Amino acid sequence: MGQNIDVQFFRPFVDGTIHMLKVQCQLTATHGIPYLKGKTPGQLTVDIAGLVGIWTDKYRGIICVSFPESTYLNIMNKMLDEKFDAISSDNNDGAGEMMNMIFGFAKRVLNEKGHDFQKALPSVIVGKNIHVSHQADTPVFVLPFSSDFGEFQLEIGLTTV
Amino acid sequence: MFDLKTKILIVDDMSTMRKIVMKACQAIGFTDFADAADGSLAFEALERHPNVGLIISDWNMPNCSGLDFLRKVRGDARFKTLPFILVTAEAEKEQIIEAIKAGVNGYVVKPFSPDVLAKRLGEVHSKIKQK
Questions:
Q1: Which of A8, A41, B4, B27 is the most buried (most CB within 10 A)?
Q2: The pTM is what?
Q3: Residue B6 and residue B53 in contact, taking contact as beta carbons nearer than 8 Å
Q4: What are B10-65's pLDDT values in tens digits?
Q5: Nearest beta carbon to residue A80 from set B16, B88, B90
Q6: How far is A50 from chain B (nearest CA, A)?
Q7: Is A93's Cβ below 8 Å from some Cβ in B?
Q8: How many angstroms separate the CA atoms of A53 and A34, rounded?
């Protein structure tokens, strides 16, 4: 994929994120300017991430949606009409479900344009100030979002086959 | 529309999604639910709850997918005509055709609002009544 940001490729993931939050919790999210992970100081503190592995004819890698605890709980509380005050086994698979909805949206759009994304089951990682490691030498693009519930981000780390 | 007393079996490997579906159904007015975390467990739940009148199942699940579960349900004479709705985040044409061939009554694309689910349930119910 190189280090040039392919806006057309990322767009469905951005649109899927905005659509998912709008429909599922009536939240308006706004995306900021994408940047290469590790190249910008003051990056987001991540406490939970939902991720899927990518395996297509052209690309291999990982896509994940990552949240600080406060943003995540605000979203889950709205989505489920709950009052969670911590990330726990009662709510942590929500990050996987959100990634699933974002990926499903993007997969549909990109496959209509000739890509061959296959089904993928999401995973979740949880921990204080975690770091999602991508394959070595993979450029990882961070797509930051802001919302009334707080900041969060998408990370897209793909290599070309 | 389905009778609001209908017992709904909600199947999804993600507890969050089961809650989202249940919340949407409750917003429509349904009150009676059973749930399961994959297709195999859902079939056992069907055995335990013979009064289930509607299944809303995720498609993409480990162990036994929604499509496998649908085929199992349609292969059992007791549940051959039980209304079955698949929930998917993808809704690609080939997949929908596959599900229709397997006997699904309708599908809903995630994410969805209670209004969208209510509309889809109404359509499914009308189609079943016309048969």
A1: B27
A2: 0.93
A3: yes
A4: 999 999 999 999 999 999 999 999 999 999 999 999 999 989 999 999 998 988 99
A5: B16
A6: 12
A7: yes
A8: 20
Confirm or reject contact between A11 and chain B (CB < 8 A): no
CA distances from A47 to A87, B49, B86 (A): 9, 39, 32
Q: A66 with A37: CB under 8 angstroms?
A: no
Other residues' Cβ atoms within 10 Å of the Cβ of residue A116:
12
- pLDDT single digits (tens) A58-102: 888 999 999 999 999 999 999 999 999 999 999 999 999 999 999
Do A100 and B110 count as a contact with CB atoms less than 8 A apart? yes
Q: Give per-residue pLDDT as tens, B78-88.
A: 999 999 999 99
d(CA A118, CA A122): 12
Contacts A–B by Cβ distance under 8 A? 52
> CA neighbours within 13 Å on the CB side: how many for B59?
24
B111 cis-preceded (ω within 30 degrees of 0)? yes
Q: Decide: helix, strand or coil at residue B125.
A: helix
Chain B residue whose CA is closest to A21: B111
The two three-digit tokens of residue B100, written as one number: 């229709």
A81 touches chain B (CB under 8 A): yes
| Cβ separation A23–B89 shorter than 8 A | no
Is A157 in the B-facing interface, judged by CB distances under 8 Å? Answer: no
Eight-state DSSP code of residue A11: H
